[in-house]
Recover the amino acids of this structure.
């Protein structure tokens, strides 16, 4: 699978196999804490920030707004201002990145759509508590200071990266984001589902699952 440059590769090694005479099948899994769909707690970039196992479930589970950003490669504050309803606490930003997952691309793509610093500041100023994006980072590689990560994590915003949002459209969904509960973790892979779309804000939802 695609991993961030320099991060550990994913390895799945068989350790016990019934076919070889063992009583059961057991595998050894090896991967970095920011592999695939994963959660960044503030501790990822902030030494005194909240760690993964202390993240409140009420932020990770609940109503989320999906924003489709079209073909733009730089998601700025103006995009959010136009497309995010007031009071949104969980925001999933769908970009052209989602097509990369559908294409089956196995190589890292450095020119992915990402947030600008003014978008990150808009998020912190408008009460968003969780941000999900559809590639392996909220910002492109190359910055030593990681300003977008710091703007979000310094303010306590939880980041979910590596989502495949291709089946979703703009609207409200019920989000369930459950990272592996790693003690004092700086991040962890997560199983994330969006249930919906909801027929209206706070209303009933249909049975589509993505």
């Amino acid at each position: 699978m695609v991993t961030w440059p320099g991060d550990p590769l994913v390895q799945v090694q068989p350790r016990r196999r019934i076919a070889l005479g063992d009583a059961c099948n057991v595998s050894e899994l090896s991967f970095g804490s920011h592999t695939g769909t994963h959660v960044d707690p503030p501790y990822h970039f902030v030494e005194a920030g909240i760690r993964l196992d202390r993240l409140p479930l009420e932020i990770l589970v609940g109503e989320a707004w999906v924003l489709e950003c079209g073909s733009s490669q730089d998601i700025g504050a103006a995009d959010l201002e136009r497309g995010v309803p007031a009071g949104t606490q969980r925001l999933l930003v769908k970009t052209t990145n989602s097509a990369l997952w559908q294409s089956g691309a196995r190589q890292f793509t450095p020119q992915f759509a990402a947030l600008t610093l003014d978008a990150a500041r808009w998020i912190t100023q408008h009460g968003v508590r969780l941000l999900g994006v559809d590639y392996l980072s909220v910002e492109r590689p190359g910055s030593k200071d990681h300003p977008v990560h710091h703007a979000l994590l310094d303010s306590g915003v939880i980041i979910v990266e590596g989502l495949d949002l291709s089946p979703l459209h703009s609207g409200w969904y019920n989000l369930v984001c459950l990272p592996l509960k790693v003690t004092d973790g700086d991040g962890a892979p997560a199983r994330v589902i969006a249930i919906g779309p909801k027929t209206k804000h706070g209303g009933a939802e249909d049975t589509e699952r993505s």
